[in-house]
Amino acid sequence: MYWVSIVTEAGIFAILALGLDVVWGWCGDFDLAFYGYLALGSYMTFVLSIGKPTAPVKYIIGWHLPVPLAIVLADIVVVALAAIIGAIALRNLRDIYFAVTTLGAVSALYLIVQNYTPLFDGYNGVYGLINPGQAALRLTYNGYRIVLLFVVLGILFLAYLLVQRLSRSPFGRMLRSVREDERAAAAYGRTVFTAKYRAYLFGAALAGLTGGLFAIFISAFNPSAWTPQELLVIYAAILVGGRGNPRGVIVGVFVVYIGFIELTRFLPSPASRPEFGPSMRQILIGLLIILMLRFRPEGIFRERPGVDRVPGPGWRLGPFRAPAAAASPGSVTAGPAVAVGTSTEAPPRAAQPADAGEGLSARGSAREGHAADDGSGQ
Amino acid sequence: MSPALLEIERLTKSFGGVHAVRECTFSAAEGQVIGLIGPNGAGKSTVVDLVSGFGQPDSGSVRFAGEQLIGKRPDVISRLGLIRTFQTPREWRNLTVMDNVLLARRRFASESLWRSMTQARRIRRAEEADRVEVRAILERFQLAELKNERAVRLSGGQKRLLEFARIAAAEPRLIILDEPMGGVNPVLGARIGEAVGQFAGEGRAVIVVEHNLPFIEKTCDRVVVMDLGEIIAQGPFSGLRDNPRVVDAYLGMDQTHE
Asked: Considering the entire predicted model, what is its pTM?
């Protein structure tokens, strides 16, 4: 059951990471408020489905809706909050200024929830969503948890299909152009704010959904469940898996969650220093981020730009599957294959027999080298 | 005579105490190539920014096909049919050459979030026609073999060509090129001059900001000379050589030109 629980949790966070990747990976906005959307989605799911509070517990609303409906309504509230925060933070702020603004927003939310008890009962939080529907489905406790695992994985799969479709669509391409160069994107008619805003709301909607699932998963929710540091783990996971690549993001979450966090649970935790384990984990996550950025900044799976499959009229070597193979991780480690803008006189130089395989300016002769690489491409 | 496509009138902008652009008035007609020259700091790039919405003037007016551009955002102006470039090529670095040019086709309707979720297949089919055109454009600018490469991996000259491929794909009515010859060798320069002529031949108005005077002489129908934020002369290039104000302002003009 331990593993069922871990995989369910990783699956939930994978959905969250898919949403965050749309915001950070595609649009380049380092959003620190994102975990707040999960938290709000979770809180709202509770107060919409667990019924009236009994004193001294206090919280708002207290309806008794069916859980799926509660999740949908909760998600609407989350998107509404994201609409406000996004409207402020995305309009003119970028990079670190955007990050600081979102951090401010989530900190304010955190303090309000923590200290204003009539909202979600402050420190104590809300609880009581214990395996909703277990009786109706006539399941044992363990059976329910296994069903929940598959429900989560199913939703993850659907979310993956949706995000993958968006990633390859003109919408995804447009977002990435905004990320790469905002001024150029505007010069070609894109309204930068609107583009980022739409992506931000989409990401928040996924986070709100995740909050609902999380509510079912942990059945109680209070401020200690959503400290802002949690978000760093998600960022680390995206970085490890491959920023901008939905498949990579999911792999990254499972690798970081299961392979990393769970393994570090076996770190010694001396009784006199109970904070040693968790602190050590934070340090290791920071280390992981640094190492990834140093040695493999594109992640395990690199973001895949769209490949135009019909050979251009200039092809002479017959069908050529993916010239992007030259840009694949394999050749990055293979040596100094990148000639990034070093020569301004490339076209004439391309006509000469150039040092074989050494980059793009050596077009004609480098072809064979690339063709040989082709099979190894991702 | 029909009114020009772009009419700039008494355009003025100062940064603090510096008059970057003062009372500038000139126009550009369809099918015409206008050269905008002047020494560094003359205000040429500021004019480009003001016209394309990347800056707001203190006063003056810019009319494009009869419509006032002042106060409009860059993306709105771009959608009206004006494409500008920047002094350094601003390619979308981690997108492929193909995607760079496809984006310049500007099919805004297919970039809707909702339609991308619900009608992915239809959008992809519709895009196929664009891809065919873009492949032809890439061929025209000698980029066909590089279509699936990330733009960041192109050489400086190839990035210039990519910029032109994007413009060709966008099919704008007015093109403003900010120093298209920066860091470009003579062979590629000839190719770029040819492309500028082609754009004009297709009935587009072209404004070229450039320091390379032989290039200006060869490609431009008319030249506007700026110095210290003011227009000091305009007319055909041949008439400017004898203008003492121009020679005076544009140090080294005789030497570069011979």
From this structure: 0.85
